[in-house]
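Amino acid chain
________________
===
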Amino acid sequence: MITWIELIKDSLPVIGTLGGAAIGAFVTLKSNKFIYEREINKLQYERKLEQQQTLIKAYQHIVKISIEKNIITLKNNGLHDIKWDEFDKEIRSVLYDNYTLLDAEVKSRLKSIDKIRKEIALSLFPNPEFEIMIDTYAYECDQLIETVENMLNYKEW
C-alpha cells in the first residue's frame, strides 16, 4: 500500500512542472498582451496622423481654390455672388469626400449651406427674396471657407 508520504514525494515533480508551466504561460500571456496593445496604439496613431494629413490637404485645396478662382464675389449692390459650379465641383465635393474627418464647426456650416440651398431650390421663381437668399447662400459659403482657413491656420494639429 502507498503511503501519503510516498504519494506526495512522487507528485512533487509533476506539481512543480505544472506550476512552472502555469507561471510561464502567465508571463507569456502578459508579454504578448503588452506587445499587442503597443502595436494597436501604433496603428491607431498612424491612422490618426494619416487622417489629419488628408484633412489638411483638403483644407489647403479649398483655401487655394477659393483664392485662385475667386468663387465668392461682391456685386456692385453690396450683395454676395457665387460661382455655383466652381463651388460645387471644387469645394463642396471635397468637403463631402472627407465628411467624416471634418471639424464640427465646418460640418455645421456645411449643413447650414445645404439648408439654404434647398430653400433656394424650392423657390419656384425669382422673387424679391430670391436675390437675398442667393446673397445669404454666398455669404455662408464665404464663412465656410473662412472657417476652413482658420482651422488650417490656428488649429493644433
